[in-house]
Write a structure and sequence with these properties.
The chain is globular and about 65 Å long. It is about 35% helix and about 20% strand. The longest helix is centred in the middle third of the chain and has 16 residues, at about 165-180. It has about 500 residues and is α/β, with parallel strands linked by helices. It has two domains: about 1-230, 3-Layer(aba) Sandwich (Rossmann fold), CATH 3.40.50.300; about 245-490, Rossmann fold (3-Layer(aba) Sandwich), CATH 3.40.50. The N and C termini lie far apart (about 60 Å). Strand 7, helix 6 (about 165-180) and strand 8 (about 180-185) form a beta-alpha-beta unit. The protein has helices spanning about 35-40, 65-70, 85-90, 105-120, 135-145, 165-180, 190-195, 220-230, 285-295, 315-320, 330-335, 340-345, 365-375, 395-405, 425-440, 450-455, 480-490, and strands spanning about 1-5, 5-10, 20-25, 50-55, 55-60, 70-75, 150-155, 180-185, 200-205, 205-210, 245-255, 260-270, 275-280, 300-305, 310, 325, 410-415, 445, 460-465, 470-475. The structure holds adenosine-5'-triphosphate and magnesium ion. Magnesium ion binds near residues 33, 34 and 393.
Length: about 500
């Protein structure tokens, strides 16, 4: 049992995990999954209830106690220091043994051994800041293993990965359980859960509502029904009328940083009523493109135009005021002020627009009403508008950002992974609101690691690889497998 002001996060939840298995936890946003895992990891304490490890009653006052008995957790938000080398991050925080400092050679050797044993490919001597998301995740897992964990908890590990990386991660998890490690993982991607899990616990409103010990006899639809009481939605393939009316134009953008080319000669346009999807393995320039459009990064050369107006000398705030909305990839870093209230957060990035302000004064009452509207329309589960953003579950934080950016009536919406971390029920609502924006004649630029979402929603698909657009595809004539092949460079478009 775990209570927060106005919420019972865990309400008599039960879970039992067999050693040496992969155990998945599923449940809608705010159902209490992360809270349960934080309790198991000692990061939070339960108000009532017990934890038993191998039959033995355990009380964890802190994460240190949990690590002590071999429990390790990989959080959804990685906690690595960018300017350290990989091996330093892995060893960081480890107590020097019997007064001796672990030598770097020995640490690197041990890391290489773990890395090859479990297929967790990383270079221990690389600078952490230069790593892609998939690599960072492997570093986090290695860090937990290095500390000798025998139970590893992963909170939504696949949310940030593209399909190929998911397969690699699952292969590593299989290796881990084969050598006796127990893996507990949370995911909203039910097909993945069915592929890799030996057992599944379904949580709803802080209670266990299902225990599946034979995953070969359950379908994603059945799981969704247990979770949310309705059937599994699909992105669909509605196509609208795309006009000749160009809203956003990107012309010959180049971006060079530390003498590395991150974007090379990128040009495309987004028309009114169109969703342009950008596919790519994380770290191939997709996010840089969005940042250049928003003015968060200055391009080395090239132009960005909104309705034929140059944005070259316009800062991010004015670009937003001019009608560009933005759903960032990292919601906690770029999308929210975690310690501020929900209504303060709905003003973020829109401080000078209605209803946040009349241009001079912040209108608190109007903001509270507006926030209430976002909460209702986007089904944000919260006790009220006065709670801080950090009190929301991950998926509900995401819904708040999506709601804020959609309701600000943008001309162009630039979205990175809009449904990341959102449960299957709420996903359908977000897809519908993106389509609604398109029907209203807005232009949308969509980056997503979810290939079904990209194919289902986009009117046109661009594929990025190493900072260049390497393919332009018709989503209706492209399968996820084909798209994946272009993303990795296994397949090349001749005409481009
Ligand atoms: N620090 C906190 N203070 C107040 N309420 C909290 C806090 N942490 C979680 N809650 C509440 O507890 C409930 C369960 O949250 P939790 O993060 O465990 O959900 P979850 O199942 O992980 O959801 P998601 O899939 O969206 O990540 C939610 O209603 C959330 O708002
Ligand atoms: Mg969570």
């Amino acid at each position: 049992m775990k209570r927060f002001p106005g919420v019972i996060a865990n309400n008599g939840v039960e879970i039992s995990v067999k050693p040496g298995t992969i155990h998945a936890i599923v449940g809608e946003n705010g159902s209490g999954k992360s809270t349960l895992m934080k309790i198991l990891y000692g990061a939070q304490q339960p108000d009532e209830g017990d934890i038993r490890i191998k039959g033995e009653l355990r009380k964890f006052k802190s994460a240190r106690d949990a690590i002590e008995v071999g429990i390790g957790m990989v959080f959804q938000h990685f906690m690595l220091a960018d300017n350290f080398l990989v091996w330093e991050n892995i060893v960081l925080g480890e107590e020097p043994r019997s007064g001796l400092t672990l030598s770097s050679d020995l640490a690197i050797k041990q890391i290489r051994e773990l890395s090859s044993k479990y297929g967790l490919a990383v270079d221990p001597e690389a600078v952490t800041g230069s790593l892609g998301v998939g690599e960072r995740q492997r570093v986090e897992i290695l860090k937990v293993l290095f500390r000798g964990a025998s139970i590893i908890i992963l909170d939504e590990p696949t949310a940030v990965l593209v399909p190929q990386e998911v397969d690699e991660l699952f292969a590593s998890l299989r290796e881990l359980v084969a050598s006796g490690v127990t893996v507990i993982f949370i995911s909203h991607k039910l097909d993945e859960v069915l592929k890799v899990a030996d057992a599944i616990t379904v949580i709803r409103a802080g209670k266990t509502v299902g225990e599946i010990t034979d995953t070969s006899h359950v379908t994603a639809v059945e799981l969704a029904t247990m979770m949310i009481g309705s059937i599994l939605p699909h992105p669909g393939t509605e196509r609208g009328v795309i006009t000749e009316d160009v809203l956003l134009e990107v012309k010959q953008i180049n971006l060079v940083r530390d003498s590395r080319s991150l974007l090379a000669d990128i040009s495309f346009a987004v028309h009114s009523g169109e969703i342009v999807g950008i596919a790519g393995v994380e770290g191939n320039g997709q996010e840089e493109i969005l940042e250049v459009i928003l003015g968060l990064q200055a391009q080395t050369s090239g132009r960005v135009l909104l309705k034929s107006i140059e944005l070259q000398h316009v800062d991010t705030r004015h670009r937003r005021d001019a009608g560009i909305s933005y759903i960032p990839a990292d919601r906690q870093r770029d999308g929210l002020m975690l310690s501020a209230t929900l209504w303060e957060n709905t003003a973020l990035g829109h401080q000078r627009q209605e209803p946040a302000s009349d241009g001079i004064w912040i209108n608190r009452a109007a903001l509270r009403t507006y926030t209430q509207k976002i909460i209702e329309k986007f089904d944000v589960r919260t006790p009220g508008v006065e709670v801080s953003a950090q009190a929301l579950s991950g998926g509900n934080q995401q819904k708040l950002i999506v709601g804020r950016e959609m309701l600000s009536s943008p001309t162009v919406l630039v979205a990175a992974h809009p449904t990341r971390g959102i449960d299957v029920g709420a996903q359908a609502a977000v897809w519908e609101s993106l389509r609604e924006a398109k029907r209203q004649g807005k232009g949308l630029l969509l980056v997503s690691a979810d290939l079904d979402e990209l194919i289902g929603l986009s009117d046109r698909l661009l594929v990025m690889l190493r900072g260049s657009i390497v393919a332009a595809l018709d989503p209706q004539a492209t399968s996820a497998a084909e798209l994946g092949a272009y993303m990795t460079g296994a397949r090349v478009q001749e005409a481009l």
